[in-house]
Amino acid sequence: MSLLLVGLSHKTAPVEVRERFAVPEDQSGNVARKLLDAPTIEEALVVSTCNRVEYLVRAGGNFRATEEIYEHLIRAQDLAPRDVEPFFYRYSDRDAIRHVFRVASSLDSMVVGEPQILGQVKSALAAAKDAGACGPELEQILTQAFRVARRVRNETGIGQMAVSISYVGVELAKKIFGSLEGRTILIIGAGKMSELAARHLRSAGAARTVVTNRTHARAVELADRFEGRAEPFDRLLQLLTEVDIVISSTGAQKFILDRKTAEGVIAARKNRPIFLVDIAVPRDLDPEINTIDNMFLYDIDDLQQIADSNLDQRRKEAQSAESIVEEEIDKLLRRLKSREAGPAIVSLQDELERVRQAELQRFRGKLDALNPEQKDAVEGLTRSLMKKVAHPSIVMLKHSSHEPDGGRIVEFVKRAFRLPQ
Amino acid sequence: MGDTAEFWLRFALICYSAGLIYSFITVIRQRRKLFRPALAAFTVGAAVQLVSIVDAGLTLGRLPVSTVYQMASVVGFCTTLAFLTVYWRYKFESLAVFVFPTVFLLTFVSILGTPVEPWGGQAWSRWWLGIHVVLFLLGYAALSLTSVAGVMYLIQEKELKSKRPSSLYHRLPPLGVLDEMALRTLGVGFVLVTLGLIVASWWAVVDQGPNWIVDPTIALAFVSWLIYLALVFGRITIGWRGRKAAYLSIVGFCFAALTWIVNSGVHSFMNR
């Protein structure tokens, strides 16, 4: 079996190149099907996302497949080969499998560990199968890739840590409160950023939203979008005693809440914890507030810093994921090879039995004179001869799945005994 | 103390037990119910206790404060009086969680001053002792969870405040969950230990006579109970949470552990 992967990604091509080669999601099956028109391509799969386009094919015989994929790309894009080549990488066999595994496990993603890619690969497989472009071999590789992705997710912490500011906010809120069910969010200042942050918190379970703004009309407008309520700005201190999460992004030049006032707030709350997110620049909330027990204050830099360190952490986890990938490649290759060796052994045995029968037939006239006992002896003798002849080759085939060039051994035995290909 | 005084005192204790039950419900269920009937029973208890003290005073011809037991009764009554005054003036309802168990225990101790008929046999004594041990073990197991939750809370809180969370941050449960766990285990532990203390005192006085109270390790046990009482009160009424509650639960448990080490095996009076 020869596998070939040709692709480009955010690592090799800028966005203006990626968008030229992107395949619309509903077209990926068709494109894969079209590739089968090329003489050497037997199975094909196309994965296309905003960060990558991958062509995975199984090619029979010689290695014209790369050129055939390029030809397809050039024809579709009306380009010259030299326009295409610099942006595309090529992997074959083991390297191709590794790449598929790494992509599915989100090890090759721009944001390492992001979960969307697995779903995208899954739908690419479904599309290729529907279009009749993907056969059992590619499907086996992809199924294994999904298993690898699952292992990587379960056995490493790669997907655990939030890497965008909004999700860091949600994660922190969860680490403070446990559950966000029934929590109330207060948005101070009706900015775009605070709206986004509040939206994430809402989808994580927070129940109510209160908006307050110096210009009341804008507060009302934003509150409507959240089915929340708007409150006049001079009620701020009262509101702070009622809510659980605060997102502040006013254009104020001075702190709107200093440490001393905040101490009053936490006392009035009977120490119920409060999570304050200050995304305003200049800051709205006195950073000293963070030293007060049960008050947790984060500004925009704090969130960014956590996001960055989480990303670092993910990269570290990715290293242990790589060894899982290698382990799974070995497993898959062994399975693929033993799948090739199994039928070869059977057909070798069939072939030798056929030869034996033919020879017995040829000597039938002479053998007829023998008594039943002698006939049995001849039968046994020929059988054991054939077994002895076949034995080394069968052992070799059985072991071939553990050897790097096992495929070639299978090929060699088939040729030596003139077995059907 | 005269027989009638003793009778009134026991009657007062029964009234006070309503208050104790109210406290238990508040601590375990985290919501206040049945305050009115408990307060009524408590007020009746106070009146009856006053009768008992006056009766004892008349019999003795002086203020009955000469023994630890008489003293406990008077202190209990004064505490009740103070609480009722404060409640009448400020409607400070949540103070009851603190006062009811304290008064109950003081009154309970005061009735243990009178010698009681010894047990019918060894078996009874063992049973009673067994219940005391089981209640304490379960209670302190719950309280040890409180302090474990406290330690985890302190670490997680530090992680959150540092803004540079390490891998611990991802592995430890959220603060809200830890706080909830501390509160629940504290409630259960407190109730069990209080019951254990009552059973133990009863056992001691029946088995060992009124001298049991002078054992210093017993005093230590009462002190660690008082720490937990303060913690329960602080959490439920003032809203102590977070760092403060976590530190106190750790201190409380250290004290309890100290009590246990000092007491390990047997109390001193049992060696006599």
SS field, number of helical segments of chain B: 10
What is the tally of helical segments of chain A? 16
User: Main beta sheet of chain A, described?
Assistant: 6 strands, parallel
Low-confidence stretches of chain A: none
Number of strands of chain B: 0
Q: List the helices and strands of chain B in order.
A: HHHHHHHHHH
- Cα end-to-end separation of chain B: 27 Å
Radius of gyration of chain A, whole Å: 33 Å
Report the strand count of chain A: 10
Shape of chain B: globular
The helix/strand order of chain A is EHHEEHHEHHHHEHEHEHEHEEHHHH
Greatest interface and its participating residue counts: A-B, 26 and 22 residues
Overall outline of chain A: elongated
**Amount of helix of chain A:** 55-70%
C-alpha end-to-end distance of chain A: 12 Å
Helix content of chain B: over 70%
Strand content of chain A: 5-15%
Q: Classify the oligomer.
A: heterodimer
Average of pLDDT of chain A: 87
Strand arrangement, largest sheet of chain A? Answer: 7-6-5-8-9-10
Strand content range of chain B: under 5%
Describe the structure.
The complex is a heterodimer of chains A (421) and B (272). With 421 residues, chain A is an alpha/beta fold. Chain A has helices at residues 15-21, 28-35, 65-77, 81-84, 93-104, 116-130, 136-155, 165-177, 192-203, 216-225, 236-242, 259-268, 300-362, 364-367, 372-400, 406-416; strands at residues 2-9, 41-49, 52-59, 89-92, 184-188, 208-213, 229-232, 245-248, 274-278, 295-299. In chain A, helix 12 (259-268) links the parallel strand 8 (245-248) and strand 9. Chain A starts with a strand and ends in a 5-residue tail after the last helix. The longest helix of chain B has 41 residues, at 122-162. Chain B starts with a helix and ends with a helix. Chain B is mostly helical. Classes of the chains: A alpha/beta (421), B mainly alpha (272). At the A-B interface, helix 8 and helix 13 of A face helix 5, helix 6, helix 7 and helix 9 of B.
